[in-house]
Amino acid sequence: MKQVLLDLQSGSIQVENVPVPAVTRGVVVENAYSLISAGTESSLINLAGQSLVGKAKARPDDVRKVIQKVGTDGLLPAYQQAMSRLERPEPLGYSSAGTVVTTGSDEFEVGDRVACAGAGYAVHAEYVAVPKNLCVRIPDGVGFKEAAFTTVGAIAMHGVRNANVTVGENVAVIGLGLIGLLTVQILKAAGCRVIGIDIDPEKLALARDLGADVASNYDGLFERVRALSPFGADAVVITAATRSSAPIEAAGRLVRSQGRVVVVGNVGMDVPRDVFYEKEAEVVVSRSYGPGRYDRNYEERGIDYPIYVRWTEKRNMEAFLELVRQKKIDLDRLITHTFPLDEAPGAYDLINTGKERFIGVLLQYSPNGSGASGTVVRLKEPGAQARRVPAPARTLGCIGAGVHAQSALYPHLAGLPVNLGGLATATGLSAQTVAKKYGFSYCTTDYKRILDDPDIDAVMIATRNDLHAPMAIEALRAGKDVFVEKPLATDIDSLRRIVEARDESGRRVMVGFNRRHSPLAVKMKGFFANRATPAVLHYRVNAGQIPPEHWVHDDEQGGGMLISECCHFIDFMQYITGARPVQVVARAIEPTGTLQKYDNFQATLTFDDGSLGTVTYTTLGDRSYPKETVEVFAGNAVGRITDFRDLELRRDGKASRERRWLTQEKGFAEELLAFVKGEEPDFVASVATTIATFAAWESIDTGAAQEIDIGRVGL
Question: Could you tell me which residue ranges the Enoyl reductase (ER) domain spans (predicted)?
Answer without folding.
Answer: 58-363
